[in-house]
Amino acid sequence: MKRNRNETNGYEQWGGYMEAKKIKLEKQFIEKATSDGNNVKSQIFKGISIFINGYTMPSSDKLKHIMMENGGVYHHYHRPGLTTHIIASNLPTAKFKLLKQYKIVKPEWISDSLKEQRLLDYRNYLLFIDKSDQPKIDFSIRAKNASEPTFLSEFYNNSRLHLISTMATTFKQLVNNTRKKNQTDYPGRRRLKKWIEQNEVKDILSQDTEFHIKKIIMHIDMDCFFVSVGLVERPDLCGLPVAVTHAKGNSSMKREGVDREAEFGLYVKRWRGDDENDNETVQEIRPQSTKRDMIDEKDSMAEIACCSYEARKLGIKNGMLVGQALKICPILKLIPYNFEQYKKVAYTLYTHIMNDYTLDVEAVSCDELYLDCTQILETTKASPLELATFLRKEIKEKTQCPCSTGLGSNCLLARLATKKAKPNGQFYLESDVIIDFMKNINIFDVPGIGRTLGHKLSTLGISTCGELSGLSLQTLQSEFGNKIGVSLYKHCRGEDNRKLNYDYKPKSVSAEVNYGIRFQNKENADNFVRQLCNEIEKRLDDVDMIGKTITLKLMIRNSEAPKESAKFLGHGFCDHITKSSSLSKSTSSSTLIFQVVNKIMNQLDIDPTELRGIGIQVNKLENRTLKKTGCIKNFLSNMKSDSKQHQNLSNKNTDKQLLRSITESKSQQSSSAKNPHNTALISTEYNKSESIVDVVLHKSENYNSKRQSTITQSASNISSHQSLINIKMSQVDPTFLDALPADLRQEIENELKANEPQTPLTIEHNTATMKISMTEESSKLYQHVHVDQMKEFVEEWVATENEPKLCDNLMVSEYLCNLIKDKKIEDAYEIIRKLYRVIKNKNNLTWKQSYFFIMKNVQDIMLNVYNAKMKVESSF
DNA sequence: ATCCTCCCCTAC
DNA sequence: TAAGGTAGGGGAGGAT
User: Which of A132, A314, A571, A874 could be a cystine partner for A329, CB 3.0 to 4.6 Å?
Assistant: First the structure.
């Protein structure tokens, strides 16, 4: 099925979903890169050819290195007959059945052999104890948690919630972008018209109503989306109780440190609002979370992401734990996730509707959307239900999945109508029946009423909208707050004046992980936080925004909670901490974000081993403004040139040199009041600069000073702190300080002021124009400009120039080529990714050509050096 | 009044 | 084993 897919369709071209793929390719690519330049150290593994299946510890990368340095062979694919051993830490049953005739060995075989400098007997390292039909996996091998460098991508590849979330954002963006098209032809409307004529189902009424067509909103919701998609390839399971989950059955390991009963008890206690010293009031019994009922010691704690209507009839609910579900319904069929397929079906759904019917769509999630049908009904003269019937028929044909639709005069009514229509049905809630209809609606079906609000209402004796409408606005407001009061008051009467929102503008960007967080030390934690910061930067870049407020969110094991959580690698029963910090200048820089987060972490002084969840959030977003026109010149005005400095910087990175570079660059750019002569020296020279090359050269010192002061400010714990104690206030890039939160800035300033010199440093400036050939220039550039700086620069370049200059194209490609020659393709890849992202964002033909031009050069040199092309985006 | 921070709630 | 994310709205209470 996958093989037959047309590879050049819109889906392939469409960004956002390619992340997993990219990560995979990147890995291959790094593997390829590191396969060169090996030096053979021994022949321990002579005659051994391994293929690595799945995630291992040590990583496949490391194992590969070990093999290659010690006479062994590494296969990227399993090659029966050639591969002598399969290395795996874990194997799914299906795979095991395929491979069980081969030697499947734990990776420790390799690492231990290396340690002992001789080939050990693999039979002592077999992954399975016997070769029966079920793999008996030795679970004592190290579990994968957030200390592992590949954890985050692995987690994202398997997290349904992450998927749901990112898909929602992606489709909102898709709607945004599609609406920019000037579409006039809607083939679906023509088909609908034809269908009505042929079927002569037209009812007279609809013709009358066209004179006074009211706004009609349609709500479309796929029926139990994940299950429906899954059943396309498993038609044999149609009609049965089916659930989508990670678990394969109802068995889990008994692990050390787990006390399920104790942990569940803590949740119940918290949910009930238990409090030792509240004995005078009647205890308010909140509904217990029934989620953990009936779970015994070894029942699966995996969650059911989605279950079929047959399963629902038997009492299974989404979110239920597999252990409990199987007790309620032992015949429940469990099927695995298929993330790629969900994306495809959702994409089909959206493009079908938007290409063929209307652009007036609000995306709610991957499987749910609102549609303003006014225009469609006007042009086709169809009745609302005719439209619904026809559209549902087409969606079913296109996606193979059923959906339900509700129609009404506002979003709320359309939604409630859908609820009534489900499964696989449709319902038009007409105005004259609204009052009766609403009377019997269960409060929990009203959007915005969840378990807490719903429960609070139940304690007031209210379970339907009819009863809710008996409460005065005043009561509702004093009980629930002003806004929520109003919304309850209106919603229970079927009123909702919210407009469809077509323009998606993100207000916050966040990344959080509350699974698999097990750190042994602060370094583990820091590394992970850094990854989250990178993730945030990437997401901000994707939407071309920067943000001002950074919030850190931590989950920490509650002191009463068992050491290990009931769920494998779960967060267990935790205390929650959030703390935010406002920058004085918006940013998307992961480095800067990390500084802030790190600072907060240090303040909180949390034991890293007790962390169970970490999240970072950026709020107060604004567009990355393209600054003023001629901003290249602005850019220049922050810079200064001094060939001597370049010299200094090229001997890279000893503390002393960095210190010197700070000293020099800072004194040049310190405020004009302090050093007027320096400012003068920044000179007209820059205004003559035509090429970005100059700019980059100039900015490099500035950048390094930034990096250095960055290190300085992470105050309390960093060892380099001491060696930098001599940094002076006037030496620190003020733009860096500006971007820090006030308290942090104050702290650094105070510290730095203490070191202020008696007399200002004087620096010699060489303002002679550099007249060197492009090649010399670019190699110089390459030597002096740090990769991160180049990334930053590429971004600035694309954002601020209307058209790329040839010399800048050359400069960038030569820089990249230099990197590749130096075998630093990871760095090159990073820059290319950035370049791709910003150009894609810019969506301008000349820039795209510029990308292709640069990539042509890059691929040529790749072929030259590696005899292979770099796997990167080749279309926009 | 309006904003900010730290929550909590809800939805998918 | 298991993959407990993410964005938005809003309230309480204090600062401005």
Answer: A314
* pLDDT > 80? residue A359: yes
Which of the nucleotides lies closest to A620 (Cα–C1')? B4
For B7, which residue's CA is nearest its C1'? A578
CA distances from A403 to A221, A222, A302, A394 (A): 6, 4, 27, 10
Cα A115–Cα A120–Cα A121 angle in degrees, nearest 5: 155
If phi over 0 gives left and psi between -120 and 50 gives alpha, with beta otherwise, what is residue A431? Answer: alpha
Give the 3-state DSSP-derived string for A471-531, with helices as H, strands as E and coil as C. Answer: CCHHHHHHHHCHHHHHHHHHHCCCCCCCCCCCCCCCCCEEEEECCCCCCCCHHHHHHHHHH
DSSP state of A278: -
**Tens of pLDDT along A639-676?**
322 222 232 222 222 222 222 222 222 222 322 222 22
Q: Where are the alpha helices (DSSP H) in A210-259?
A: 225-232
Q: How far from A396 is each of A227, A229, A348, A424, A836, CA to CA, in Å?
A: 14, 11, 11, 10, 36
Instruction: Enumerate residues 6+ apart whose C-beta is below 8 A from A236.
Output: none
| Cβ-based neighbour number of residue A444 at 10 Å | 14
pTM: 0.65
Residue nearest to nucleotide B12 (CA to C1'): A365
Length A456 CA → B8 C1' (Å)? 14
- 3 state SS for A348-416: HHHHHHHHHCCCCEEEEECCEEEEECHHHHHHHCCCHHHHHHHHHHHHHHHHCCCEEEEEECCHHHHHH
Q: Which residue is nearest to nucleotide C12 (CA to C1')?
A: A481
Cα A453 from chain centroid? Answer: 30
